[in-house]
Specification:
By secondary structure, the chain is α+β, with helices and mostly antiparallel strands. It has two domains: 76 residues, GIY-YIG endonuclease (3-Layer(aba) Sandwich), CATH 3.40.1440.10; 43 residues. The protein contains six helices and three strands. Strands 2-1-3 form a three-stranded antiparallel sheet, sandwiched between helices. The longest helix is centred in the last third of the chain and has 26 residues. It is elongated, with a radius of gyration of 28 Å. The N and C termini lie far apart (85 Å). The model has no long low-confidence stretch (mean pLDDT 82).
Amino acid sequence: MPFIYCLASEDEVLYVGRTINLKRREKEHRNKRDTTYTRFIPASTKWEMICLEEVAEEDAFHAEGFYYQFLEPKYNKKVPGRTFAEYQQSEACKEYNRKYSREYEQTEIRKEYRKNYSKRYMQTEAYKESKREYYRERCRLRQKKLHSLDE
């Protein structure tokens, strides 16, 4: 049967999870060998693993979600029971994307890439043809407008 557990420091809950083997899971957390977000817990943070509840297999997912909402852990990123589409609509995801986009666009590598890419693209036939077509369409619209004013 699965266990619902949390990693807690003196003043806050850091992570909520579920496992079948508590000892193995604690060892994974301590060695940072897991793929969860506990690897972001600073090494200087002292925490202990607390078993919250042993649940039936079919209730584990919902129990983990309950404890996640109740304890509000700091380092959980994936909310149990939430789909990827719901995550993308969340404020946390939107804020992360805004922050990442601003930081990424301001990097020198990105600026250099944009400069070089735009130079290369402007030299392609596709770009030149799209520009020709754009100006032809503008001329057609201007001529239509002049004809309509003459009449």
